[in-house]
Amino acid sequence: MKKIIGDTRIYKRDSDRDPGTGLLNKAAIEDYSRKTLQLITPKKCTWLAILDVDDFKAVNDSYGHAFGDKILLEMARLLEESVGNAGMAGRFGGDEFFFCLDDAGEYEVRGVLEKLLVGLPEASERLMPGLKVTISAGVISSPLNPGGYDELFALADKALYIAKGKGRNRYIIYREEMHANYVIPGNTKAFSYSKNYMERITLAVRDNTDLLFKKGMDALPEVVDRLRDEFQLDYFAIYSGKSRKCVYCTGEKKDVPFPEWLLKGIMEDPSSENTWTYASDPMIGRSKKEHPRLCRWLKRRKGREGIFSVIKDEEGNPGAIFVYNSEAMKQWAVDDAYVLMLMSDVIHRIKTMEDMRKRDR
Q: What integer pLDDT is reported at residue 43 of this predicted model?
């Protein structure tokens, strides 16, 4: 039985339901959320999430409104299944959905969101092979963030536009310390943020690459400090040579051994020059399926996200750069992960060139 605030007969009436999907309509889900927030206590966490089907107009234009309706029905089904008895889900209209989780932890809300991020692309591809429809979401919790429904909704909406600005197909959990200073003006919300974000990461790559080419590995401490500040890294290490000895390390942990099992397949393929392995959120992340062993390995070390950049030197010995973070609030965007992979590649190549020069002297 779902948790219903107040009269148990409410929200079961036809007037409370969205006729297109059967979910709660905008008025009903707002009413449920407001009443849930009124019962909040310091030990009870309520979550609000706004979800948007990415590029839904393009889906309608390309495949027709009847197909678009099927996507909305799949979204509604997945949303109701994922939320389950933890709260209530509704549709605001069009391709915009909403859910409220009552008395839930961050682990639970991330679990719901991850199911949706994986489930809708899979469902859309079953309906139309080759088509993967994705979603973006903005999420906020109370009482961690003060305010009533209207204030919290506005911040969740802000988080949604940040998610869209970072490339869509992701969720952002609003955190005051991370997102308060993001300015999203007028009707150009997603686009203005996306432009600023892309400029920021482009500058990060350009400036750090220029510094490495000018000063070589002498610039590494400065570059790593910049990367740690920009992408909130907890750990950065370089492994080199046949024994994969740790030749550079910074961060709280100094004793992380290199996991040799990561090299399986790379050593056997002489044509493989480099590879990147990225694992996110080892508790519930999508990459639990893609890199289960790396996720378990990170979890044992209290890591939350990690990147291994494995690159062979001129003698064919694979070395690696490993970075990770451990705090939930430091979740990387996908573009952040790509930048870290690219910078790892640049650092590896600079180091390899310097090693070759030293041997030639």
A: 77
Sheet arrangement for strand 135-142: 87-93, 96-101, 46-53, 135-142, 171-173
At 107 the three-state DSSP class reads: helix
Query: What are the structure tokens assigned to 64, written together?
Result: 């027709």
What's phi and psi for 325, nearest 5 deg? -125, 165
Handedness of CA 147, 150, 153, 154 (dihedral sign): negative
Please measure the distance between the N-terminal and C-terminal CA atoms of the chain and give it in whole angstroms: 76
Are 112 and 86 within 8 A, CB to CB?
yes
3-state SS of 38-105 is HCCCCCCCEEEEEEEECCHHHHHHHHCHHHHHHHHHHHHHHHHHHHHHHEEEEEEECCEEEEEECCCC
pLDDT of residue 253: 57
Taking only the tens place, the pLDDT of each residue in 221-272 is 888 888 877 776 777 888 877 777 788 887 655 566 777 776 665 555 554 5
Distance CA 279, CA 265 (A): 18
Please report the pLDDT score of residue 5 as a whole number: 44
Bridge partner residues of 323 (DSSP) = 236, 307
Positions in the chain whose pLDDT score sits under 50: 1-8, 185-195, 271, 282-289, 328-329
Quick one: 251 exposed, middle or buried, by C-beta within 10 A (0-12, 13-18, 19+)? middle
Bridge partners of residue 89, in order along the sequence: 99
The domains located in the chain, with CATH, are: 14-182 (3.30.70.270), 196-360 (3.30.450.40)
Other CB atoms closer than 10 Å to residue 267's CB: what's the count? 14
